[in-house]
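Researcher: Hi, I'm a grad student and pretty new to this. My advisor asked me to get structures for two proteins we've been looking at. I'm not sure of the right format, so I'll just paste the first sequence and hope you can take it from there.
Model: That works fine. Here's the first sequence with its structure tokens right after it:
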Amino acid sequence: FQLCEAWLWCASRSTRNAGKGLWTRPKHLHRRASDSAKIRERAKGRDVMLNTSNTQKAVAYVRVSSLAQVRKGQGAESQAARCAEFARMKGYEIVRVFEDKAVSGSLVERPGMKTMLAYLRKHRREQIRVIIDDISRLARDLTAHLKLRTSISEAGGVLESPSIEFGEDSDSQLIEHLLASVSAHARNKNA
């Protein structure tokens, strides 16, 4: 298990922001300040309304699996706080927090998840960011992970996390699937 984590860490170094310990997008996907300036320059003298408060909306999804965690107040609050901090650092506005408490990570059908997916479908055009604290909070089963990831995408959401960058390239998918498999292994081992 430690060897697997070490390999994943080494393999991910190229996309890791060493100064902040956060996963970031590849540089070619970032909007540069000069791009915004060019857009404003082209709009000068025209009746073009620019959205200067272009705050990206985000939702947080938190899940705790045991009733003991719910009773003690452990887990959900700290997950929500970490998601809020990540959103603040990215310049996102958290508009809702969706929770599933005392729900297994192997299940796809969850009340909080269903509500979140309905919300995303309703606001599809906004491409709302879905922030999870850790990949294990989405699912602790590879099949469930893949189904939920697809459902979020099909509903118009974009999945993000402070602990992993969700990309569409083969390397990012490999890391994501390995981490989802490690989460499933940990659930099975602790059962």
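Researcher: Oh nice, that was easy. Here's the second one.
Model: And its structure:
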Amino acid sequence: VHRDVSPANVLLTGEGTPKLADLGLAVFVGEAAERAGTPGYVSPEQSRGEAVEARADVWSLGAVLFRAATGRHLVGRTVPVDEAELEAARAGVGTALAGCAELAAVVAEMTCGSASSRPAASEVARRLRALRGVPGATLRQHLGVEAACAPERRLGNVVAPEDGFFGRESERAELLRLLEAHPVVTVHGPG
């Protein structure tokens, strides 16, 4: 289980194929682990520190898809996830994604508060493939979403995630200290 599916960890190849990055929080299915991840994208059960299975990542991907399609967060950054807020957010998914009923339905199911009620990853993949004919920009235009253009925060030339992060505080503090002391250069493009 990845445990940190968030916009910052979904990378796109030059052809637009998504790749999941940063396996630093991954655990085996059913393994208990510390509460950690990106607020707003952590499943309810993970935010409570419970053992997780693959459907925790399904929830997180649903939150990522909602953000990609609407430019808004599905839920706030509270940890653990506030159940009342989650239910209110899920009730609004159909309205927020009214321009694409199929996407609204799959996102609503993916973000169900109960892991056992969420679809399996293979079912999500099948349903998302059916939507593949609608390019991202076209889908956003179809949904009437304006692109959110927030200025980026940077550490050297590395973009700092706007969503924050919780867990592994000592490692994060050491990493930030090192980044501030030693600028990082990243190279993008074909290897």
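Researcher: Is there anything I should tell my advisor about the second?
Model: You could mention this: The radius of gyration is 17 Å.
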